[in-house]
């Protein structure tokens, strides 16, 4: 009898040890008993209209759709203005992760900031959801298992634009490019498409971020004689460049080509200056009943403002993240990322969209024409959708990618 009890005790000890050893392999629950999400972007500078406080509104709407909690655990939101400075963005990310228990960050920062933050997120195994940062290297040679790309990048967005214009005989190009990683990446990707299609790049100029005077840059572009002047910039820089180009009369002889344009910028610049411009977009608020309903809800929550592409992507990213936390019962980064990539995205703007191993959200893109003032019949009636680009044609093929995450599949 004593031997049986001893044997039973030994088995119990062994079983207990096995259970203890098994714990790290299972989901660890919710750290700090709260799910904390950070929103980092430019909130007062040249890119503040792209995301800014409007993305914070989208985040709050996403959280409210879960009742402010997931599986009984409260969801909290923290926000920061990165001021377009890598040192500030990095300091915020470190403080959030090391001292404030932030579990995921939604980024709409300049690529230079996002690259630094991405390294921290990878080291800490925390999801980094890009909903506005456009560098194509985030799903190529700089890919990370913790990063997902939710909107567009400098590969996909210009691809369709260049192809369409080359087909119309627009075969000489000049670049007006913002002088940091985002703009240079955009120019490099677009140049590859131009050359592959038989076109030529006649030159380029770099301008500082947040420029107010584009006169010298535009005169250089004009003197090049290129049929197309490609604007590899965004935010206030893009708006200033377009308005000053119209003042110089560039559009009378040369085609102004925005490589990336959000509808909030279209609204700010106006249809008079942008009418009949062709562009590629991941989302248009007036495309479907679901999109219109959410756009109305967003507008009511944010002072009547228009729902643009990045703010829609912010809602989608946070919603999908919280669904993954709910399904896994944890905010542990690896587990959440696996769930996000194994589950199709379904919301008001995307239906059954997958996330590729490199973090690319494989959404379709849409070809659009900006309407003339006479064609616009109601508030924000700006685009005519003229075509759809399937996801397999829009994004960088896996076979051409330098991302090790794709090679390990």
List the helices and strands and how they pair.
Elements: H1 2-22, E1 34-41, H2 52-64, E2 69-70, E3 73-81, H3 86-99, E4 104-108, H4 111-124, E5 128-130, E6 147-149, H5 156-167, E7 172-178, H6 181-196, E8 200-207, H7 215-224, E9 228-232, H8 235-248, E10 255-258, H9 263-269, H10 271-274, E11 278-281, H11 289-301, H12 309-328, H13 333-342, E12 345-346, E13 351-353, E14 365-370, E15 383-389, H14 391-394, H15 404-407
Parallel strand pairs: 1-3, 1-4, 4-5, 5-6, 7-8, 7-9, 9-10
Antiparallel strand pairs: 2-3, 11-14, 12-13, 14-15
In words, what does this structure look like?
This protein is an alpha/beta fold and 409 residues long. It contains 15 helices and 15 strands. Strands 2-3-1-4-5-6 form a 6-stranded mixed β-sheet, sandwiched between helices. Strand 7 (172-178), helix 6 (181-196) and strand 8 (200-207) form a beta-alpha-beta unit. Helix 2 runs parallel beside helix 12, helix 3 packs parallel to helix 4 and helix 5 runs parallel beside helix 6. The N and C termini lie far apart (55 Å). Mean pLDDT is 91; it is low at 1-27.
* Strand-residue proportion: 15-25%
Report the radius of gyration as a whole number of Å.
24 Å
Number of helical runs? Answer: 15
Structural class: alpha/beta
| DSSP E strands, number | 15
The largest sheet, given as strand count, sense and whether it forms a barrel, is: 6 strands, mixed
The helix content, as a percent range, equals 40-55%
Distance linking N and C termini: 55 Å
Mean pLDDT: 91
Low-confidence stretches: 1-27
Please tell me what the overall shape is. globular
């Amino acid at each position: 009898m004593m031997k049986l009890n001893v044997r039973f005790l030994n088995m119990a000890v062994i079983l207990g040890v096995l259970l203890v050893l098994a714990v790290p392999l299972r989901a660890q629950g919710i750290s700090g008993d709260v799910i904390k999400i950070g929103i980092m972007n430019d909130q007062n500078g040249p890119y503040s209209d792209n995301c800014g406080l409007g993305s914070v509104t989208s985040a709050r709407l996403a959280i409210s759709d879960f009742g402010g909690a997931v599986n009984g655990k409260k969801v909290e939101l923290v926000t920061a203005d990165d001021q377009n400075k890598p040192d500030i963005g990095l300091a915020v990310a470190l403080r959030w992760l090391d001292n404030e228990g932030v579990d995921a960050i939604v980024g709409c920062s300049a690529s230079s900031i996002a690259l630094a933050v991405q390294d921290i997120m990878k080291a800490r195994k925390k999801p980094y959801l890009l909903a506005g940062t456009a560098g194509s290297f985030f799903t190529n040679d700089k890919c990370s298992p913790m990063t997902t790309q939710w909107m567009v990048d400098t590969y996909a967005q210009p691809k369709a634009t260049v192809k369409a214009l080359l087909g119309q005989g627009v075969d000489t190009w000049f670049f007006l490019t913002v002088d940091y990683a985002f703009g240079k990446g955009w120019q490099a990707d677009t140049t590859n498409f131009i050359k592959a299609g038989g076109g030529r790049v006649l030159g380029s100029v770099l301008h500082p971020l947040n420029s107010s005077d584009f006169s010298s840059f535009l005169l250089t572009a004009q003197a090049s004689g290129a049929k197309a002047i490609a604007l590899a910039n965004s935010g206030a820089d893009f708006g200033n460049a377009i308005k000053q180009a119209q003042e110089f009369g560039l559009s009378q002889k040369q085609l102004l080509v925005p490589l990336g344009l959000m509808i909030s910028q279209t609204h700010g610049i106006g249809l008079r200056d942008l009418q009949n411009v062709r562009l590629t977009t991941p989302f248009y608020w007036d495309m479907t009943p679901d999109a219109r309903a959410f756009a109305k809800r967003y507008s009511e929550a944010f002072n009547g403002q228009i729902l643009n592409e990045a703010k829609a992507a912010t809602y989608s990213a946070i919603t999908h993240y919280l669904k993954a936390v709910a399904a896994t019962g944890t905010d542990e980064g690896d587990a959440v990322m696996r769930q996000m990539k194994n589950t199709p995205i379904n919301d008001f703007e995307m239906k059954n969209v997958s996330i590729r191993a490199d973090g690319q959200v494989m959404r379709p893109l849409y070809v659009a024409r900006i309407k003339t003032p006479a064609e616009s019949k109601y508030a924000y009636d700006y685009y005519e959708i003229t075509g759809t680009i399937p996801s397999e044609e829009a994004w960088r093929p896996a076979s051409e990618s330098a991302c090790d995450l794709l090679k390990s599949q």
